[in-house]
Amino acid sequence: MSKHSDVLVVGAGIIGLTAAWRAACRGLSVTVLDPTPRDGASMAAAGMLAAVCEADFGEPELAAMNVDSAARWPDFAAELEKASRLDVGLRQTGTLTLAFDPDDLAETRRLIDLQHRWGLVSEEISTAQARRISPLVGRVAGGAWMPDDHQVDPRATTRALDAAARAAGAVVVECRAVRLTSASGRVVGAVDAAGVDRTADLVVVAAGVSSTGLLATAGIHAPLRPVKGITLRLAAEPWFDVEPVVRARVQGRAVYAVTRVADESGFREVVIGASSDEKPDDRRVEAGSVFALLRDARAVLPGIDELDLREASPRVRPSAPDNLPYLDASVDGLLVATGHGRNGILLTPLTSAVVDATLDETDLPDVVAPAMMNRHTRIRTEEAS
């Protein structure tokens, strides 16, 4: 059996649903394939829009993409909220970075220096200044303030994208794509696990770690590795009024806490994360990972001891060898939008712009040029020469 759509999207996470919405709102017929829609990495993400905090040595291209995409978030959120009539939880809170001990503070200063060299806004602050921003800060050596790093609610955003895509006519089919189909050098569709041959004028692959195997069926090389992370969700009473995103370095280990707005009962969700282990998506919650997250979070925010632990969410992030995403429309009939790693939420508006450009047959944003799939082959060729 064969079925045709203008656009076939493989993957119903935040990236795939973004592609579906952008295509459907143009009046195109859209089918989305995913065996478990809205159950991937987006469900565990904290939603930090941390372009400055995420800037790291050896990753200038990724930093440029993050900064570009962060600037797009307000307009993206406003358009999505209008289309879905749902709040996505975008809050301009700034980010407070804490250093637990003198060694952590030294590393924080190294990163501040890097951020300044790249033209990013960050400021070292004292312990007293950190406590003026949030009185619940514990005993720390110092920290930094990033006024341009904010937050959004990934689960709310994913719900809004799903609603907006469906309202515009997209159809979500709970089935797995098993292979891509090609003709005359062009990708023309995919066969799903039910044996349906689904043809399309454009196929968007946004299937997380599964993208590598699916693309390989069409002879396309896009290596991804699963990086498992666990986030914890806790319920806080009104006294836990930590407004900014808090990121910390505790004896060299990274931890963060993101506080949402209060619900009708006055409780606020606090997301703590994230562990990082290169292992498959086994959905196990290891006791050691939970212990390590709580240990490090309470080291800088002791009040966490009083919160109610409500949920532990294990998921894998699809990460390329160089931590850059794949944003590539160089193969006829195909757009690859996957491998966003730890920056999937942050990079969603930029990915949306890539989808828009592909659908409109215009040039992709210049900043995504390093995200082509052939970069690994190009590096190997250059090394060989």
From TrEMBL:
Q: Which domain of life is it from?
A: Bacteria
Record GO cellular component, one term: cytoplasm
Keyword tags: Oxidoreductase, Thiamine biosynthesis
Reply yes or no: does the keyword Oxidoreductase apply. Answer: yes
Q: Which SUPFAM superfamilies match?
A: FAD-linked reductases, C-terminal domain, FAD/NAD(P)-binding domain
FAD dependent oxidoreductase domain boundaries = 6-353
Task: Please give a single GO biological process term from the UniProt record.
Answer: thiamine biosynthetic process
The pathway this protein participates in, as annotated, is:
Cofactor biosynthesis; thiamine diphosphate biosynthesis
Respond yes or no to whether keyword Phosphoprotein is given for this record: no
GO molecular function term, any single one: flavin adenine dinucleotide binding
Q: Known EC number(s)? A: 1.4.3.19
Q: Which reaction does it catalyse?
A: glycine + O2 + H2O = glyoxylate + H2O2 + NH4(+)
Its name, as the record gives it, is glycine oxidase
